[in-house]
Every structure is written in C-alpha cells, then in structure tokens.
Task: structure prediction
Amino acid sequence: MSPRDRLTEMHPEMTAWRRDFHAHPEIGFEEHRTSGIVAAKLAEWGIEVHRGLGGTGVVGVIRGNKSAGGGNRAIGLRADMDALPMEEANDFAHRSSNPGRMHGCGHDGHTTMLLGAARYLAETRDFSGTVHLIFQPAEEGLAGAKAMLEDGLFERFPCDAVYGIHNSPDLPLGTVKALTGTALAAIDYFSVVLRGRSAHGAHPHQGIDAVAIAAAVVNVLNTLPSRHVDALESAIVSIGQIHGGTSDIVLPETVELRGSVRTLKPEVRDRVEELFHRAVTHTAAAQGGTAEIAYRRAYPATINTPHEADRAALAAAAVVGAENVIRAGDPLLAGEDFAFMLERAPGAYILFGQRGAERGGTPVHNPLYDFNDDLLPLGAAYLAGVVEQELA
Ligand SMILES: [Zn+2]
Ligand SMILES: [Zn+2]
Result:
C-alpha cells in the first residue's frame, strides 16, 4: 500500500489525535502531556524511543528492512509540539481546555502528521538505513531546536539530511511551496534603555530629555534599512514597545524601546547589528544621553540546501502533483528555529497549503485559527514518502 493510501485510511484516527492535542495545548518546554502521548504511541508501534532531549523533546528511531542498498544513511524528520500563550476564540468541541494556551500555529497538526508517518514507516520499513523522528519542544521564540542540538541531537542521532514542514493558511490545500535557498528570515530582538537626566517639565534645559532622545532614535532606526542597506536586500527594524515616564510634568530619566530585526542574509544581519549599535549610541550621545543596548540573536535564517530542496519538491510532487509544487517565490520574513538544524545538516523546510473552501484560511497566531485536518494525510504521506525516496 502506498503512503498516501495507508495514511488516508488512517485519516480518522489522525484527526482524533490532532483534536486531542488541540484541546490540550502546552507552551514551550512544558509539553509534558504531548510528549508523553508521542512517546507512548511510538513505543506502541515498536519504535525505539528516546526522551528528554532539550527537556521535553522526543526522538524515535526506525530502521528499514531493505538492507540491499548499502543501508547506512540516516535522515531526520522534524515536527514541533508547542502551543502559544494566547486565548483561543473558537467555540468548536476541540477548542483549548487550557486557559491562556492555544495551538494557534498548527503544531498539533505537525506532531500528528509525523506520528502518522512514523506509524506507516514502522509498519512497512520499506527503506534502507535509519529514520530519526524528531519531536521538538518550544519552537515559538524559545529555540527548542537549539536546546535539542545542545543535548547532542545530531551526535546521538546523526542525520545526512533533515526535513521539516509547516502548514500555510496563505496557500490552498493541495499546494506546496518548496524554495531553494532562503525560505524564512533571521530574527533578532533588542531592548534599548535611553538615559537622560530627569527635569521639571517647565525647565527641560536643566535636564537631558530622554523622550526627545527616544524620538530621535525611533527615526534613525526607521531609516536605517532604507538608507544603509541595499534596497534589493531585505531588512526590517520594528519597534514594538516604548516605555517611559510617570507624570505629565516631569521629564523621565529613562525611556525604553524594544523591538525586532528581520533579515534574510547572514551578511546583512551582521551589518544591521553593527549599524544599530552605532546609530543608537551616537544619537543618544548627540543629545547628551547614553544608551544601554541589549541585542539578542534569536533565530538564524532558514536556508534550504539546493539538493535537498529539489528532493523535497520531488517527494511533495508524488503527493500533490508536480503542477502544485511552487519552486520560485519570495521568502517569508517570519522565522523558524528549524534554521538551527539546517545550520548543522543539509535539508529543506517546505510549506503545505491548508486553505480549503470552508476552513484553513485563518492566519496562524490568530485566536480563530485551527489546523485543517484535511492536510493530515497529505503532510504525513509527504514525510513518509521522503524516507522511501531518499532511503530507497
Ligand atoms: Zn508560530
Ligand atoms: Zn509554527
């Protein structure tokens, strides 16, 4: 039986697993119930299970039965398990039962698709070599992939290539986007504390106005990409928070700015960080103030290696048809911690459309979002198909 047929047969069960995960969301590094269910199912299907990588991470190992082909290659398939700290606004039966927690990015579906693929692969083992099923914690901002790598993921479970997928409400169900090169942006975070000297609102000249410094810094940061980075490259500096002051008639001692920087190329990322420090420090100094900058590199850009992107596209075409696999287009300025795995191994991260006629079109991170269960057999068949194709 082909992966597609077997996984279509498994669709009702996968839907039940997915809705159970959806109803019991857990945020980054707290995926105790979720990872417990994952580990139990893998064990039930006769798959070797390793727990505790990166906290709640789980790795399943399946060895193929086809030894003829040389058989010592290994590939990794990765799914993320975490939910978001947000309130769900849906009212269907499988809505979140945990207040302030929601599967708002579809990781419940990603976990389920990898489980479906795992079960099929454990039943058939129609490949040579080894598959490492990587169920990672904390994709949403907490770098669970990095935590697993620091716990020796690729030393203990070496992978010749790694493959990851994400659902996309922007693309129709049955469509896949598999880009070569940069697929997603690097994301960095900053906090800047601008320090002046407090003064009476009537006598600003007796102090140093931290609010005026903040206004100047906002302007200089907004022009930083447009005036200092090639217009054909991508860079965004977004200030998401400004905090300062307690009174209408007192100039505050400090004002804090917080925000994020997104870039697509490592050299642009380095350049923007350098320019950021220079611009903020000198703008504050020009008005007699100082700046304390905390600049944190979060996720690198997600960069697909050419060979693996081609192979992923081929495996996706076997499921949705070659005419439905998009190979050219713009990367997204969102980020993904699968990027850390792609820094260490060749691989590809591709998007599976989930927008159907009636559901699946609500954007991720929206309180009305839900993963479209119609995608389950497609994504799972892709993951299983990559294994049979790459480890033939
Ligand atoms: Zn997300
Ligand atoms: Zn996500």
Notes: The pocket of zinc ion (ligand 1) is lined by residues 105, 140, 364-365 (CB under 6 Å). The two ends are 16 Å apart (CA to CA). The mean pLDDT is 96.
